[in-house]
């Protein structure tokens, strides 16, 4: 038996009909009002569909439709459509009253037939008489029009071929994991792919730099996916829909007819997905890494609490020691365990952590990492790199303390004999005790290529230029090591935070 699209979320379930008046225009207004009341109910009760909800939505329209006397309609064609519409609503209400399982084949087939019939009637009314649908509900109505047009095309195609599209149970959705990377939101994100075993499924998880995540479900070692879910933590529904449509349009008609779509919205995310032939529970698909995996460093709440606290304090050595102990004590953990990824980030910076000092602000719960002995501008220190937990990238504090004003606005470098213009800036100035002048500037937008040249240079000189002249300083070997050390710690906080965030969403 052919299964057709039953719901593309609760959204698809409710895209149908209703209204009240005493003329042809009033008949149209009756249908419009019924639709709006139904859609208002749907927006207020956007949740798991049930037979009771389906019947209630249908009754909402019937209450409006039945208040109108179709005998007052002058246009015979409109009267016929109006009556057909009312009868279809009554019919589906009676048919659903005989059912007790919304997921049964019987309910699926009855609702699909009803949906197609209602969509065709509404589309005929709209084409002949033009329904005035409020802007807030145009998306709902356009889905009805689209369904009606698709139904017409399918009927025409079946008439030509005298056959229905076949459903290939081997090819399922016709989608493989590598196909995901053809979409621009996931292009170049192959290294984010994680694979998990869950019951009878393999689940591939792919992240996009645009706050998207794709879950791809393969049942019983199948070559092709039985389900995909697009999760958008940014709650951008339009972009989610466009991305989903990119994959949906590549599926053949047989796969679409044997599949069900769904959408869900929460405060923290927006989901849209499709499941083939009921092979995955559409009401409860595993769609969080934390519920898919069987074991992980973050499944222990104490580890999460420790991790979050240590991140805020930049206690990277403590985190490294904890995950290393966890790995040693649990020798059979999977390679996908978060502990391995954490260790992979922290292992290369252990030597750097021996060279730094951390200043923790318990008021703001933030930390700043400095090279030992280089925490502020002075007469000896004029190039201070640092990393703050509220800005994972590296920052540079540039400046000096001296007698007399310079009013610095330009900085030049000489790197192994090659002069480079660093940039212009407005330095902050301050008069210190004894009349010493302090001029400084914080740079968060440096040239990374230039920084790497400094790190690898044998000799680097600095020249501060301003209204009152210039000041030359040499970067010592200690200064360059400070830059190299702090530069190696940039983005560590962000990368470590992402591991936990990706696990929890």
The shape, in one word, is elongated
Our measurement of the CA-to-CA distance between the termini, rounded to an integer number of angstroms, reads: 37 Å
Strand order of the largest sheet: 1-2-3-4-6-5
Discrete helix count: 17
- Overall number of strands: 16
Helicity level, as a percent range?
40-55%
Q: Beta-strand percentage?
A: 15-25%
Overall pLDDT level: 84
Explain the overall architecture.
With 505 residues, this protein is an alpha+beta fold. 41% of the residues lie in helices and 22% in strands. It is elongated and about 100 Å long. The relative contact order is 0.07.
Condensed summary:
The chain is an alpha+beta fold.
Q: How is the secondary structure organized here?
A:
Elements: H1 9-13, H2 24-44, H3 51-65, H4 76-97, H5 105-129, H6 138-161, H7 177-180, E1 194-198, E2 201-207, E3 212-219, E4 227-232, H8 237-248, H9 253-257, E5 259-265, E6 270-276, H10 289-292, H11 301-312, H12 316-329, H13 338-346, H14 350-353, E7 356-361, E8 366-371, E9 383-388, E10 391-403, E11 408-415, E12 418-424, E13 428-431, E14 436-443, H15 448-455, E15 460-466, E16 469-475, H16 477-488, H17 492-504
Antiparallel strand pairs: 1-2, 2-3, 3-4, 4-6, 5-6, 7-8, 8-9, 9-10, 10-14, 11-12, 11-15, 13-14, 15-16
Helix pairs in contact: 2-3, 3-4, 4-5, 5-6, 12-13, 13-17, 15-16
